[in-house]
Structure formats: C-alpha cells, structure tokens
Amino acid sequence: MVGRPREFARDEALLKARDLFWKRGYEGVSMADLVAELGIASARIYAAFGSKEALFREAIANYEANEGGFADRALQEEASVRRAIERMLRSAVETYTRPGKPKGCMVVSAATNCSSTNDAVLTWLATHRRERTASIIERLRQAVNIGELPADTGVEALGDYYAALLHGLSVQARDGIPKKRLLALIPVAVRMLDSGQ
Known about the structure:
The chain is mainly alpha-helical. The chain has helices spanning 10-24, 31-38, 42-49, 52-65, 70-77, 81-96, 106-109, 119-145, 155-174, 179-190, 192-195. It has 2 domains: 10-62, Orthogonal Bundle (Arc Repressor Mutant, subunit A); 67-195, Tetracycline Repressor, domain 2 (Orthogonal Bundle), CATH 1.10.357. The relative contact order is 0.12.
C-alpha cells in the first residue's frame, strides 16, 4: 500500500520562505530556491500564495506581526518614552542577533538593492521603513505633549536618529558585530533624550 503524500502545511511553508527571504533578500531568492527550501513543487507554491511577490509580502507581514513587531510593542506598551526607546533598541539587538536565526531586520535587508523590475517591492519596503520612523516621531511628540520631554525637543530629528540607529543595528548585526557591542550603544542613544536635539 502506498502512503499518502504529506499534507501541505501552509504556515510551515510560510515560515521557511520568510527565513529564506530574510537571509538572502527578495532578489536573492529564486523560485527554484523556494521549491528546494519548502520541499514542494512550484505549482503548489503558486496555488497557495499566488506569486513570489505575494509570498514575500505575506512573509513580511508574518515577520512584522511576530519577531519584527518589537518596536510597535515597545512604543505602545511602555509608559515612559525613555523606557519605550530603550526597550525598542534592546529588542532590536536581541532580535537581530539570535543564534541560529537570520541576522538583522528583514524589512531593512530584504530589498536594499533591487533591479528596476522589482521597484514595486523596493518602494513597498521603503514605505514600511518610513512608517517605522513616523511611529517613533509620534511617540516622541506624545512625550512632548504630556511634558515628559521639553517643548523645544526636536522630535523629527530625534525620531530620524533612532530610526537610523535601528537600521544601522540591523546592518551591524548582519556584519557580525557582537551582541555585547550593539547593546553598549543603547545607553549612549537613550542619553540623546536628555539633550532633546
């Protein structure tokens, strides 16, 4: 008697695809790579996800809802802006340097360079990164409005600084900078709140 083929586990396939995109970027992953990693035929991948780009977008959504959601959680859950920024940066380092997992931020590293045929993916990810910057600026603005930070705090410059640091942490983690060194940046960064610049 011939055994039945293993049932296609869509969630498991999505996680495998997510990690492959996270490691190699959007253009660095071919359909043949996905077939090999997921262990299913390309026809089944297309049937389940629609296209490589649709699969990638769903993989990004999964990342942002899970590992990559650390910034939203920190900015929304912490009562003080100082604790929110510190937690956001610490969680970034923890996420970007996990042993045995892809390094860095998936949204930062997945499509920093793309051919013109993939401009839509590049633009879509840039929008996600700008939204992250906007969320940090908004959290700083709230802190000014309630008197937690001085009224003359340059919230846009400070928000841009923290967003640039988040992106820089991702690149440093991918380059193999040790976790201890990345964590050492956090007290320095949080002190920027004292200057309000």
